[in-house]
């Protein structure tokens, strides 16, 4: 018989989308437990009821700590781990000065394996159980990431970043190589264990029309894969796309004409959108990913989450490291709150937690597997200490509601708040943070 574990604490449950249902009805927090067995959630309820139903179960009682779904970072560049916090440039110069030279190192499989392991350990240390990562143009960089994720039991999304222009020669492929290498990688990895493949043209400035066409054909032939790319992040980038593709009516059209929009299409940033782009994104069921620390760090602009949700578009949340300035999805939620204030909407803590869990899961078309605590869902769970530092503890002590208790950790928390991480119901040994001690 499969062994059952009861994970007890203040359990966060997701009942509806907090952007269309009052947030405190959409998500609730109550003292209780989660019964997990065979890698999935079997039941939720009071600890007493679940103990009675499973008298032989092991009990992990986390007391006042918050038990929530593992956080989901819906857009990240693992090869940029070692160049996070690189000073002084806007997007295109930042790519040329810091990013491309670093990505050039990933032709070495040992280096790729080292950084892949480091990135995933940093993610786990911060309570992130799923990432959607760009790799580099080197196929070995994709193997390294999926292999490191499989070793840890993590569900990750990843893909070979395709580029055939406007980058250093050693990073360029061709339309044919982009197609064939991506096809080979997805045949080997997509659906193997917990791996999900994303066809990954970096963005229009570095992918020719021919390359986008080849990748559109590949996606059409493999529709269960995701497609991830960048859209309308920075004003200079959009002007460059206009120069490169003067016949396209807008930036999105450069993807759309090759079939690179639709369900399973995941667009990072998408800050500066035209009305037509918003309409087509909604009609096609494409998803957007908000990367607030990156958008501030690189000086890109303010993504209006509440407006895009009201437009009926799926929105996830992401660090976008190394353009983003933190590996922590808590810090990312705090940045999303601050950007919300600047765009006229104070996002409720329930909305922030939803974006980092269910919102990201849905953006990655994984909403039926991860991102909520409910029977049948994969048991990737996070336990957060809501009093992890003196500053947070003294504020949380004054809280009168569960949301008021959680908000100081959202705004001021970091990896010290991560008390436990479970992957498919298995508790990681030591906190994720301990696993990175050897770096
Ligand atoms: N646009 C194209 N490539 C990148 C990247 O690596 N980071 C960010 N932030 N934007 C991009
Ligand atoms: Zn990015």
Automatic annotation (TrEMBL):
One of its GO terms (biological process) is guanine catabolic process. Belongs to the metallo-dependent hydrolases superfamily. ATZ/TRZ family. Its cofactor is Zn(2+). Residues 32-57 form the Aminodeoxyfutalosine deaminase/Imidazolonepropionase-like composite domain. It holds the Pfam family Amidohydro_1. It is an enzyme of class 3 (hydrolase). It catalyses: guanine + H2O + H(+) = xanthine + NH4(+). Its EC number is 3.5.4.3. InterPro entries: Amidohydro-rel, Guanine_deaminase, Metal-dep_hydrolase_composite, Metal_Hydrolase, Metallo-dep_hydrolases, MQNX/HUTI_composite_N. Signal peptide: none annotated. This is Guanine deaminase. One of its GO terms (molecular function) is zinc ion binding. Binds 1 zinc ion per subunit. Keywords: Hydrolase, Metal-binding, Zinc. GO terms for cellular component: cytosol. Residues 66-426 form the Amidohydrolase-related domain. Pathway: Purine metabolism; guanine degradation; xanthine from guanine: step 1/1. Catalyzes the hydrolytic deamination of guanine, producing xanthine and ammonia.
């Amino acid at each position: 018989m499969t062994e059952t574990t009861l994970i007890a604490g203040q359990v966060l449950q997701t009942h509806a989308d907090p952007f269309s249902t009052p947030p405190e009805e959409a998500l609730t927090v109550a003292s209780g437990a989660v019964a997990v067995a065979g890698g999935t959630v079997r039941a939720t309820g009071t600890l007493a009821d679940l103990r009675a139903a499973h008298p032989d179960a092991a009990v992990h009682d986390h007391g006042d700590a918050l038990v929530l779904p593992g956080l989901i970072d819906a857009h990240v560049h693992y090869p940029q781990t070692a160049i996070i916090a690189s000073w002084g440039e806007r997007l295109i110069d930042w790519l040329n000065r810091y990013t491309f030279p670093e990505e050039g190192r990933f032709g070495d499989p040992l280096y790729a394996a080292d950084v892949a392991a480091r990135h995933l350990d940093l993610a786990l240390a911060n309570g992130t159980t799923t990432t959607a990562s760009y790799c580099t143009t080197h196929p070995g960089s994709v193997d390294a990431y999926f292999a490191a994720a499989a070793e840890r039991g993590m569900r990750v999304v990843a893909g070979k970043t395709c580029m055939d222009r406007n980058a250093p020669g050693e990073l360029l492929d061709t339309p044919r190589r982009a197609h064939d290498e991506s096809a080979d990688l997805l045949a080997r990895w997509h659906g193997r264990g917990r791996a999900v493949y994303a066809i990954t043209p970096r963005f229009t400035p570095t992918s020719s029309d021919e390359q986008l066409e080849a990748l559109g054909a590949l996606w059409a032939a493999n529709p269960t894969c995701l497609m991830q790319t960048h859209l309308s992040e920075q004003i200079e980038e959009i002007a460059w796309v206009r120069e490169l593709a003067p016949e396209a009516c807008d930036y999105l059209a450069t993807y759309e004409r090759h079939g690179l929009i639709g369900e399973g299409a995941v667009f990072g940033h998408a800050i500066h959108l035209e009305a037509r782009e918003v309409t087509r994104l909604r009609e096609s069921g494409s998803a957007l990913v908000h990367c607030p620390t990156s958008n501030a760090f690189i000086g890109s602009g303010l993504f209006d989450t509440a407006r895009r949700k009201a437009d009926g578009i799926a929105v996830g949340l992401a660090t976008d490291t190394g353009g983003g300035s933190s590996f922590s999805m808590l810090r990312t939620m705090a940045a999303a709150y601050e950007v919300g204030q600047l765009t006229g909407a104070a996002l409720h803590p329930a909305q922030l937690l939803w974006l980092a869990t269910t919102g990201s899961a849905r953006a990655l078309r994984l909403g039926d597997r991860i991102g909520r605590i409910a029977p049948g869902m994969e048991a990737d769970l996070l336990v957060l200490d809501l009093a992890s530092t003196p500053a947070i503890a003294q504020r949380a002590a004054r809280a009168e509601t569960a949301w008021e208790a959680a908000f100081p950790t959202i705004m001021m928390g970091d990896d010290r708040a991560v008390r436990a991480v479970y992957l498919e119901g298995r508790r990681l040994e030591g906190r994720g943070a301990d696993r990175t001690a050897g770096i």
